[in-house]
Write a structure and sequence with these properties.
Shape: globular
Strand order of the largest sheet: 3-4-9-6-8-7
Strand content: 15-25%
Structural class: alpha+beta
Helix content: 40-55%
Length: about 800
């Protein structure tokens, strides 16, 4: 009767589904009984899957998801590049020529900047503004959800100024009131009519709070062909090939350009996809290294779980032998064990999703507000969930297949006759265990090498760094509108008046203006000294500063003197930092020497500059190596956007009030923005390196922690399997130090092999990923194979080995010889 029931059960319904459900129920019961193993395996696997999914979530936001533009694959970005590869925009004449003759592509353009926005009788707020050419919003499939878009009449000369608001500013400043349409607001002090509101995730490739017609931009029609400030986008027309459209634009640009427009600098058009321009390429070396780090942590966790499963399979030899002797095939045994691995991976995947969400939140909390554009949103979308499922599925094969195949090879007769695993099976499992442990340790070495290199690079500090982290200096930025400050004399007058107003303000010790704050990227120029005309020019950073710049920072100029408030008609005075002085005049006196900027078009400078002082070395980028910097008077060519630094005896809030009041007296429609202490501004400028360092530290800690768990498990299992041997050794006179040496030798043997394999991995990593980093001067001269880095790795792994062996050593020393021999 039982046989008849069994045959009937096997034939009803879907036999494969019934068998899988039966295996799943059995696997769940087995895992529930062995709760210690299950919890450990799930936690270890969840860490690996969660970290991998967190990295993919970040990668998805930065490179994969793309801008929210419909059919973005047919949207292109057009820029220009000179012979040196410098990327710039297009000028208005160049854009107008291309737009008129382009057949395959509809072109649009925009210019981003800042503006003031205010209601009547209210203090202005600083907002991000984009001037857009006619048809640009339609080209990007952007339509206001409230009101209308721009028309051709809006850009016509003599018309009334109009603007479109973003959803964010509409909600924040106007409380999401639909009655804002038709309302008159003040943009840079000019009455402007609001005609529409655009949603936040608009697809516009820049951060903007308001939009205005590009044709109404001041002095646009008078710009020359070399004033390349426009950012040009285009949509390839239906039926046209994208690659052919790119070639058409590049060829047409070259044929339209006058031969002498750029003085022979060889400017060419460069066309790329809109997503590649604003998000980069997924296969850039930096992103490949980012992906590799996430995969390393996942592989370490999988190797750890595989080791746990191998050890558990030895304890289940008798159960598997009984099932085999009762008729279970090897395929059925492998299927059963893989289903158990699937259950582990499923629970770990759900827990890993929580780990991923928490990790992304921690990562996001380290990024200053309003730094990332709106499209870099770390959300869990369908692509992220699909990646989570894929990683969980791959993990099953990585950590579950080899233990399942190893366990299914048991000889039922030998196992049942001996009562446990045979010596050959134990040795075979140990070889696989050792292999997985070596892989864990080798991958951990790669992570440690990157972390040690990061410590070494970030550990190099400059003597002036404390001066940049002070809370006693307030920083603020303002942008002078072109309508009211159209030229250098107007901006120079405003700077002089504001400086005079601050000099007499109570509590203000000093104030200075600059084109760019410390630890912020400054323009790069090529510099040549007067007495070395045949030498190669030197790349330098150019910073324009007002008088009192270094006094405000609490630093001095030695030797030499400060720059004048307004340079005279003679040669323009400049300061060079000590690093550049050591390069140009080693052992000599730089004061009175002359230098000048050169370009590829002209080997001789247009103007020679006179060095009047040597400034201390201050960072203009978050890099460890000092850079060559030239400081020139701000008044000689004041830019529209200027930053101020104010050192005072007041609190930052009181200093900000004094600065605002001084600006308001000169121009009530001019807003201050980015107000922060110099220490906070410096910290915000270095957020990328700081967040990356913390992320690498967290990932390396997880990887090394998992490797330590694996070493602990293998060492504990080795002590348990050699219990009888240890008992005999102690019975014939072995002292505890000999037992400790035996256990530690085995552990250090595993670590030594892991380090050797890891060093080979490090060399490969250094060859693949580090050249691009050195080329960008992010870590100049740094190498993962540096002896300093390898020394740190050796020290960390030695400490981890000892800590991982403490508990197994205690167990080995507590073995009673009589108990061990009696048990055998």
């Amino acid at each position: 009767m039982s046989q008849v029931k069994t045959r009937y059960r096997d034939q009803r319904g879907l036999p494969v589904v019934d068998a899988l459900l039966q295996d799943a129920r059995f696997g769940w019961r087995v895992l529930s009984r062995d709760r210690g193993f299950t919890v450990t395996a799930v936690l270890v696997l969840a860490l690996g899957i969660g970290v991998n999914n967190m990295m993919f979530t970040i990668l998805n936001a930065h490179t994969i998801r793309g801008l929210p533009i419909p059919d973005a694959g047919r949207v292109i970005y057009v820029s220009t590049r000179d012979a040196a590869g410098t990327d710039r925009g297009l000028s208005w004449p160049e854009f107008a020529d291309l737009r008129d003759v382009a057949v395959s592509t509809a072109l649009g353009a925009f210019v981003s900047g800042s503006a003031s926005l205010a209601n009547e009788h209210e203090a202005p707020d600083r907002v991000e503004r984009s001037y857009v050419a006619a048809g640009t919003l339609t080209l990007l499939s952007i339509q206001p959800f409230l009101g209308r878009s721009f028309t051709d009449d809006d850009g016509a000369p003599g018309g009334s100024p109009v603007a479109i608001l973003s959803e964010g500013i509409w909600k924040a400043k106007y409380k999401a009131d639909p009655a804002v349409l038709g309302r008159t607001v003040l943009v840079d002090g000019l009455p402007t009519t609001v005609v529409g509101v655009i949603e936040r995730a608009s697809g516009f490739p820049a951060v903007a709070d308001i939009w205005q017609p590009l044709e109404r931009m001041p002095a646009l029609q008078k710009t020359t062909r070399t004033a390349r400030v426009l950012r040009v986008v285009g949509r390839v027309r239906a039926g046209a090939d994208v690659s052919l459209a790119r070639a058409e634009i590049e060829t047409q640009f070259q044929s339209d350009a006058p031969a002498d427009a750029d003085g022979g600098t060889g400017v060419r058009a460069h066309v790329t996809s809109i997503n590649e321009r604003f998000l980069g390429r997924l296969f850039d070396p930096a992103w490949l290294a980012f992906i590799a780090v996430g995969c390393l942590v996942a592989l370490i966790s999988c190797a750890n779980v595989a080791n746990l499963l191998l050890g558990r399979a030895l304890h289940r030899e008798r159960e598997i032998a009984l099932r085999t002797s009762l008729g279970a095939t090897r395929l059925r045994i492998v299927r059963q064990l893989l289903i158990e691995s699937t259950l582990l991976a499923s629970v770990a995947g759900l827990l890993g999703l929580a780990v991923s969400v928490g990790g992304v939140q921690l990562f996001r909390s380290g990024i200053p507000a309003n730094v990332l554009p709106y499209w870099m949103d770390y959300v869990i979308d369908g692509r992220v969930l699909a990646a989570l499922f894929a990683v969980s599925t791959i993990a099953i094969l990585v950590f579950g297949l080899i233990p399942a195949l190893q366990a299914s090879r048991s000889d039922p007769q030998a196992v049942l006759r001996q009562g446990g695993p045979t010596i050959a099976r134990t040795r075979s499992a140990s070889r696989w265990t050792d292999a997985f442990l070596v892989v864990e340790l080798a991958l951990g070495v790669v992570m440690l090498a990157n972390l040690a290199l990061g410590w070494r690079v970030s550990g190099s500090r400059l003597p002036t760094d404390p001066a940049l982290n002070t809370p006693d200096v307030l920083t603020a930025t303002l942008t002078l509108p072109a309508e009211r400050y159209p030229d250098a004399p107007a901006r120079r007058t405003f700077l002089r008046q504001l400086r005079e107003s601050l000099d007499g303000a109570p509590g203000i010790r000093s104030a200075a203006a600059t084109s760019v704050l410390p630890v912020r990227p400054a323009p790069e120029r090529q510099l040549r000294a007067w007495d070395t005309p045949a030498s190669e020019p030197i790349a330098v950073r150019q910073v324009s500063i007002g008088p009192g710049y270094f006094d405000t920072l609490g630093l001095g100029i030695e030797p030499g003197r400060d720059l004048p408030a307004e340079p005279g008609p003679a040669s323009t005075p400049v300061l060079i930092n000590a690093h550049l002085a050591a390069i140009l005049f080693p052992g000599g006196d730089p004061l009175g020497q002359r230098v000048g900027y050169v370009s590829e078009a002209a080997s001789e400078p247009a103007e020679w500059l006179t060095i009047v002082g040597v400034a201390p070395v201050i960072r203009q980028r978050a890099a460890s190596e000092p850079e060559a910097i030239v400081y020139q008077p701000l008044a000689s060519s004041p830019p529209a956007t200027i930053s101020w630094m104010v050192r005072s005896e007041l609190s930052p809030e009181a200093s900000a009030a004094v600065l605002r009041d001084a600006v308001r007296r000169l121009d009530p429609n001019l807003p201050l923005y980015s107000l922060a202490t110099l220490g906070q501004a410096t910290s915000d400028a270095e957020w990328n390196g700081r967040v990356s360092g913390r992320l690498l530290l967290a990932l390396t800690s997880i990887a090394i922690g998992l490797a330590a768990v694996g070493l602990f498990a293998v060492t504990s299992r080795a002590v348990g399997s050699r219990r009888r041997e240890i008992g005999i050794r102690m019975a014939i006179g072995a002292v505890p130090s000999q037992i400790r040496g035996m256990v530690l030798r085995q552990a250090f043997r595993h670590v030594g092999i892991g380090v050797l394999v890891g060093v080979a991995f490090v060399v490969a990593w250094d060859a693949v990923f580090m050249p691009s980093a050195r080329a960008r001067a992010v870590v100049p001269g740094a190498s993962l194979t540096d002896p300093y880095v390898l020394l740190i790795i050796a020290g960390v792994l030695a400490a981890i080995t000892v800590l991982s062996c403490l508990v197994p050593l205690g167990r080995a020393q507590r073995i009673e010889p009589s108990t061990a021999l009696r048990g055998e």
